[in-house]
Amino acid sequence: MGSLKLPLIFQNGMVLQRRRPVCVWGWAADDAQITVQCAGESALAIAKEGRWKAFLPSMEAGTGHTLRITCDDCEVVIDDVAVGEVWLASGQSNMEFLLRDDAEAASATQIEHADIRCFEVPKIAYSGQENDRDYSSVGLWRKACANEALYFTAVGFYFAEELYRSLNVPVGIINCTWGGISASVFMGEEYLTGRLGFFIDRAKEAQSKIEPETELERFKALQRTIDALPIDNSRPNLAPFQPDPSMLDSLAEMNALQLSVYSPFRPSGLYETMLKRIVPYTLSGVLWYQGESDASFPDLYEELLQAMIVNWRDLWHEELPFLFVQLASFECMFEPLDFVPIRAIQERLTKTVNKVWLACAMDVGMRYDVHPKHKRPVGERLARQALSKVYGRPILADSPTVEGCLREGSKITIRFAHSGHGLESRGERPQTVDVRINGAPVNAPEISVRDNLMLISSPALAQDGPVTIEFCRHPYCEDTVYNSAGLPALPFVCRIE
Questions:
Q1: Which residue, among 443, 271, 288, 274, has the nearest Cα to 361 in the 3D structure?
Q2: Which of 17, 106, 164, 359 has CA 20 to 30 A from 450's CA?
Q3: Bond prior to 122 in cis (omega within 30° of 0)
């Protein structure tokens, strides 16, 4: 290979983005002339300060290509290259969650999809960690064939499967995730300013309490303990989880090192060690499933996500589409958590930030497990949003959303957008609808849905005073109202004076 080097993501089996100039980059000796060739197209670059970047002209979808990069004294040949649609899947554990742990893993892997492929960005928390752990099974382009599919992000797999079925082109998913992270870990420090400087200041304060002489060895020891922990995702969570004494010791050490300079949870850390290693790989857009670990900071989360989107769009020099997953219904695993404010912020971002869309997961949640085991609905709903908003398919992709409320005597009518051919309630009546008048609960109101309407009536509503209707505004609740595309209604609050 000589002086010519490429990022790890450029390797056999990779997927390149179709119908757009494709960025290929790497490192070489200064003034070296680099030629990039693929599918009959070519591009040239000159290395400056040890780096080079070239853009292949747009290519149509296809498979079996060879990507050839040559310079003065060497050549890199990458085989089995596909051209199709490429999406970056990022966030925390629910996006990280592998297909092997999904409820439908056995049936999902019965069908081989050689044109659906996934690259997992190696989980590197600090410079040099690649020498401290075994990374031989990651940093590869895998095909969705038999057991290889088990190592896909489950959400990404179901998203890609639906995209492949609809577009009939290869689909590549780039998995850049780490469980338990705040969005701040995937952002540059220069974007964590103003009120968002809180994340930097909090980390600095925590780091000041850690002995630097022993910090790295403590972190390595903790990592070895975590790596050795048995993982049993088959156990049904029927009550809050109670850790055993040995786990409590590990949790205490984890808490002490949570924001260490070696920790993946420190702000801006994974931005440098993971995200920037795939920038500026040419993409169609971003799938984002995160928010659980920022539930403690709901007053900052909207600003945090807005800044993160700006940061990533600046990195890629384009207005990348972002498809968000609205957090699922959940109450408590180790401790109670309230995702109600985060869900509201996630919906609000679709109205305040251009090219941000939402897939609702309220109906797939588990009361005592923050990791829902049925990821197919989530991936398929994200795919519907992509097909509608990015690829222009005329399909219903949005969940039912409140357009307005009307009060007439003892009756209230709530009107929805995105109902399709009409709303349906799965079960005897809509669940998790809280009605109050003058702040007092209305007991046992009559509630039904038809066409694009939710109808609520009760004699108590005939009295004077403001009325508030809340739908699915509990940490854990049942979302049983759907549109004709099978998409659950978004949580909402209606206030009528």
A1: 288
A2: 359
A3: no
Per the CB < 8 A criterion, the answer to whether 399 and 361 are in contact is no
Q: Looking up tokens 């920037």, which residue turns up?
A: 276
User: What is the SS3 assignment for 220?
Assistant: helix
- Residue 119 and residue 168 in contact, taking contact as beta carbons nearer than 8 Å: no
Residue 388 per-residue DSSP state: I
Closest CA to 469 of 444, 437, 446, 443: 437
Distance, C-alpha 80 to centroid of its chain = 28
Q: How many CB atoms lie within 10 A of CB 151?
A: 18
> Read out DSSP for 366-385?
BTTBSS-S--HHHHHHHHHH
Beta bridge mates, 437: 440, 467
Instruction: Divide the 497 residues of the chain into consecutive groups of 10 and give the mean pLDDT of each group.
Output: 87 98 96 96 96 98 98 93 98 97 93 96 95 91 95 98 98 97 98 98 97 94 81 60 68 89 97 98 98 97 98 98 98 91 98 98 96 97 98 98 95 98 93 96 95 97 95 96 98 95
